[in-house]
Amino acid sequence: MKYLCIEFINTEWYNFHEMFKEPLKDEKLILDFFNSWNIDFKKPLQNNQIEILLDLRDLLKKIIYSNCKNEKIDLNDFRLINNYMASYEFKKNIVFENGEYNIIEVLTNSYVNLVVYKIISSFFDLVSENKLSRINYCKNPDCNWLFYDESKNKTRKWCDNTCASLMKVRKYRNKLKSSNNHLL
Ligand SMILES: [Zn+2]
């Protein structure tokens, strides 16, 4: 299962892996990312909007990793999250689409950043669906990619097989090294 807020935090990973740059500062990458979540924006994000996204990512990252490590979440961080949401106002409209009546929510103040709203809403979904405890991070210290742990007892440690085999080899080598030291 994937949550926008989690994949959004994971975008930071690309600063230190694969493309070694900040996806949020790359016009094409940021568009591709949000389009893959069915969020399309008409024009490129302005620098101040990107700064808002970077701040939001830091904040969500802090909350999610604290929770993964069973540390207490700083309640002030929730206040900050709620502050982001304070500027959103919606109205409900009825529309006729694809042969059926639908009730849709329409933003009444178009100046606010819809992307921020969607990301935080996805975090709220994670909490209200009681799935926050399913989110964990890869225990390869060079990775830390966040994932949704579907295992029965929430015991998954690695983001993928690459990290798993890498860490197993490292563990084996350390073991070998310590037993060799023992022999000396
Ligand atoms: Zn990993």
Automatic annotation (TrEMBL):
Protein name: ABATE domain-containing protein
Pfam families found in the cross-reference section: zf-CGNR
Top-level taxon of origin: Bacteria
Residue span, Zinc finger CGNR domain: 134-174
Species whose genome carries this gene: Helicovermis profundi
InterPro entries referenced in this protein's UniProt entry, alphabetically: ABATE, ABATE_dom_sf, Znf_CGNR
